[in-house]
Amino acid sequence: MFNSPAFRKKTVPLFAMISPVTAWLVLLIAAPLVYILIISFCTTNESHNIVFHFTLRNYARLFDPTILGIYTNSLIVAVLTTVVCILIAYPFGYIMASTSPFKKTLMMIFLMLPFWTNSLIRLYSWRVLLGKNGYINDFLIYIGLIDAPIEMMFTRGAVILGMVYTLLPFMVLPVYTVIDKLDNSLIEASKDLGAGFWQTFRNITLPLTVPGIFAGSIMVFIPALGYFFVSDLMGGGNNQIIGNVISRQFKEAYNWPFGAALSIMLIVITLICVKLYTRSGGKLDELGTV
Amino acid sequence: MEKETESIKEPPSIAEEKPNPIVEIIGVDKFYDSNHVVKNLNMTIYEKEFLSILGPSGCGKTTLLRMIAGFEHQTSGTITIEGENVENKEPFERNINTVFQSYALFPHMNIYDNIAYGLRMKKVPKNEIKSRVDKALVMVRLEGFEQRYPSQLSGGQKQRVAIARAIINNPRVLLLDEPLGALDMKLRKQMQIELKSLQRKLGITFIYVTHDQEEALTMSDRIAVMNAGNVDQLGTPEEIYARPATKFIADFIGETNLFEAVAEEERGGTAYLYCEAGDLLGKSEGFDPNEIVYVSVRPEKIRCSSQAVEGFSLGGVVRENIYLGNIIKTIIMLTNGQAVRINTPVDLPVPALGSIQYIYWDIKDSVMIYTPSNDIIKQIENADFAAFAGEIKTKEAGNV
Questions:
Q1: Can you give the CATH number for the domain in which B357 is found?
Q2: Domain assignment present for A119
Q3: Do the domain assignments include residue A135?
Q4: Which residues of B touch A192 (CB under 8 A)?
Q5: Which residue of B has its CA nearest to A205?
Q6: Closest partner residue to B118 among A194, A196, A207, by Cβ?
Q7: Is the pLDDT of residue B382 over 60?
Q8: Which of A188, B43, B54, B316 sits at 20 to 30 Å (Cα–Cα) from B264?
Q9: Contact at CB, B98 and A188, closer than 8 angstroms
Q10: Of B104, B108, B122, the CB nearest to A189
Q11: What digits encode the pLDDT tens for the residues B327-372?
C-alpha cells in the first residue's frame, strides 16, 4: 500500500503539506491547553511545586467572593468597552465604506498605524496625557476650568479607555466589511419607496449590518476580559480583571493549578460567547476577517 | 435623416387621442469626470406608453434611467416629470418607482413586508396596506407567498415581488432596469408577455432599459436606440426594424447583411450600385454619384439562384447549411470574402453545399443607410465636443 502510486502521488504530498500545520497546532496550542486542563485539577506543595493529586478545590475557589467580584468588574469593563467600541466603530466604518477609495485608504492607515507601535508604549503615552501632572490636567488648570488636578488615571474609566484604544480596530474592521458589502441597490430601493435617510438606516442598513457588530463584539469582548496589561497600566491595582488574577497566580503566587482553573473558566466563557454568536447565525469565518 | 426627426416627433402609435407627455428630457448631459456618458439628449416620453431604451452595455442607458429616478444628477440640462422640473427632488419625492436589475428585495423581510414597505413609509393605515398588498399579490400571481423570505423564491418569483413592491405605490411611471436579465430564456419570454399585459392593465408608463433587441421589439410601443450616449433613433419597433437610421442600428437590431457600396446612378426608383463583390440594386433615395452607401438586407429577404439576376452580380460559394428548427441558415461566401447569411423556411429548398449561387433581393426589402458622411460628421462633433466640454468642465472646477 505504501508503495502504490496513488499513495505516493496523493497521500505523501498531502501529509507533507499539512504536517507542519498539524505539528504547529498540536505542539503550540493543543498540548499547552491539555496541560492547563490537567494541572487545574492538581494541588501544590509547600515549595509551590505542582503535585498530581486530583482535586476540585481550585474550581471551588472560583466562587470565592473576591474572585466573583473581579469577574463582575471584568464583565462590566468588557461590556462597556464593547459598547463604546460599537458607538465609535459604526460611524467610522459607515463613513469609510461610503467615501472615495483614496480617503478609505487614508482612514485605514490612520486606524492601523498605531498598531505598528508597541501597545505598552502607546498605553504609557496615555499616562503622560491623563496623569495628575499630565498635559490634560495642566491644560484644564491653565484655562481655569479646575483648581486642582483631577484623578483620571487608575479609574475604571481609564481602563475602559485603554481597552477601547487597544481593541477598536477589531470592531471597525468587521463592521466596515459588512457595511461595505451591503448591496447599494437595497439602499436605493428603500429611498425609491419613500424612505428618507434615517428610515432607511433604521429599516435596512442597521438590521443588515448587525452580523458585523456581532462579529466585532466577539473580537472585542473576549480580549477585554483578559488584557491584564491594560488594567495594570491604566487601572493601577484598583481595577483588576480576570487576566490580572490569572497572571498573578502564575507569576507571583506560584499557584499554577488555581491559575489554570481560572484560565479554564475564561475559556468556557469565551466558548459560550462564540456559541451564542454562531447560534444567532454568525459565521466563524467572519471572525477571522482581521 | 428626415426619417429620424420625423420619428422623434411622432407620438406613440397606440394612442387613440393626443397623448400627454409625462417625462421630458431636455438637453441632458452627464459627465463622470471627463467621461461623457450621456450627450445632449432630448426625449419625450408619453403617458401610458411602453418605451424601451435599447443599447449595448456602456451606451449610457442605465445612467439615463438613474437620472430619471433621481439616483444620479445630470451635469446639465433639464428633466421634467408631469411638467415639473425635478432637479432638486429626491427619489422618494418623484412619482416614479424603479424595478432594479438585481431585484433589490430586502433579504431580512418577508414578502408581505417587502411589498408593504413603500406604503408603510407613507404612513398608510394598516388595514388599507393589507388590502392593497393582497391586491398586488393577486396581480403578480403570488397569493400565499406572504410569509416567505426572498431567499426562498425563484428568480421569476423574486422578479414579480419586485414589480409588486413598485406598482403598489401607484407610480405614474415605472422604471425597469434590465429586470429580466437574470432569468432563463423560457421564463424571460413568459415574463415579457406578463409585463406587457400588466402595463396595459395598469395604464401607466413603463420605461424599460434593455440590451436585448428581441425583448425591446416584443414589448415596446416605442424604442429609443442608444449608442455612445446618443439616441440614434426613436420609433416604433416596426420602424426601427424595417428602416434603421444608422449602420449601427441595422447591425444591432436583428441579424442583417450589410453591403458597403458605391452609388453609380439612379433610374426609375432604383439605385444602381456596386461593391467589391459585384453589382447590386437598392432603393433610390437621391444619392450623389460615387457616394458611399450601406445597403442592409435581412437574412430572410435574400434569395439565391444559380443564374445572375438582372442588376445583381454577387456570386459566391455555399459554405454552410445550418438547421435551426424553423429555418435553415445558409452561409454564402462572396468573392471578396464577405459571408452572407440567408434564412430559408425549412419547407423550402436550399442550395446545395459547395454550389455556386448568385444572391439577389427585392429592391423594397433593401434598407439604404447613408451613414458614412453623416456618421463621420457626427463622430467628429461628438468626439471633439466631448473632449472639449470635458476640458472646460475641469477647468471651471479648477477655477472655483
A1: 2.40.50.140
A2: yes
A3: yes
A4: 69, 91-92, 96-98, 166
A5: B106
A6: A194
A7: no
A8: B316
A9: yes
A10: B104
A11: 899 999 988 888 999 998 988 888 888 888 899 998 888 888 865 4
Domain hosting A102: range is 63-289
Report the side by side order of strands in the sheet with B205-210. Answer: B96-99, B173-177, B205-210, B50-54, B222-227, B230-235
The pLDDT tens digits of the residues spanning A126-140 come to: 888 888 888 888 888
What are the helix (H) ranges across B210-343? Answer: 213-219, 237-242, 247-252
Q: Do the domain assignments include residue B375?
A: no
pLDDT of res. B390: 52
Asked if residue A225 belongs to a domain, the reply is: yes
CB A126 within 8 A of CB A132: no
User: Residue A23 — very low, low, confident or very high, per pLDDT cuts 50/70/90?
Assistant: confident
Give per-residue pLDDT as tens, A177-231: 999 999 999 999 999 998 989 999 999 999 999 989 999 999 999 999 888 888 8
Return the percentage of chain B with pLDDT > 90, whole number. Answer: 25
Torsion angle, alpha carbons of B375, B378, B384, B389, to 10: -150
Map residue B394 onto helix, strand or coil. Answer: helix
Interface test with A, best of B89, B92, B132, B163 (most A CBs within 10 A): B92
Q: Of B123-132, B256-265, B280-289, where does mean pLDDT reach its minimum?
A: B280-289
Name the least confident of A162-166, A280-284, B364-368, B383-387: B383-387
Q: Which of B104, B106, B122 sits opposite A194 (nearest CB)?
A: B122
Q: Which of B202, B226, B248 is the last residue of a domain?
A: B248
**E-only strand ranges, A83-212:** none
Q: Does B92 touch chain A (CB under 8 A)?
A: yes
Q: What is the distance between the alpha carbons of residues A241 and A71, in angstroms, rounded to a whole number?
A: 7
Q: What residue in B sits closest to A191 (Cα-Cα)?
A: B92
Of A40, A34, A35, residue with least CA distance to A62: A40
Between chains, do B92 and A195 touch, taking CB under 8 Å as contact?
Answer: yes
ipTM reported for the complex, 2 dp: 0.74
CB A170 within 8 A of CB A290: yes
Q: Considering only CB atoms, which chain A residues are within 8 Å of B98? A: 188-189, 192
With respect to residue B392, please indicate whether it lies within any of the assigned structural domains: no
> Closest Cα of chain B to A197: distance in Å?
11
Question: In the prediction, which pLDDT does B15 show?
Answer: 46
Select the residue of B107, B108, B169 nearest A193 (Cβ to Cβ). Answer: B169
Instruction: Give me the residues of B, 325-344, that contact A with CB < 8 A.
Output: none
Q: Is residue B291's pLDDT more than 90?
A: no
Domain with B137, as residue range(s), is: 2-248
The neighbour count for residue B395, using CB atoms within 10 Å, is: 10
Q: Report B:264-323 residues touching A (Cβ under 8 A).
A: none
Q: Which residues contact B149 (CB under 8 A, 6 or more apart)?
A: B107, B109, B110, B111
Q: CB-based contact (8 Å) between B179 and chain A?
A: no
Burial class (CB in 10 A: 0-12, 13-18, 19+), B110: middle
Cβ atoms of B245 and B232 closer than 8 Å = yes
Contact A193 B106 (CB under 8 A): no
Question: d(Cα A162, Cα A67) in Å, to the nearest integer?
Answer: 23
Verify that B194 and B265 share a domain, yes or no.
no
In Å, how far are A134, A152, A165 from A131, measured between CA atoms? 4, 7, 17
Contact of B247 with chain A, judged by CB distance below 8 Å, is answered with: no
- A25 and A67 both lie in a single domain: no
How many domains would you assign to chain B? 2
Do B121 and A195 lie within an 8 Å CB cutoff? Answer: yes
- In chain A, residues with a C-beta closer than 8 Å to the C-beta of B166 are 192-193
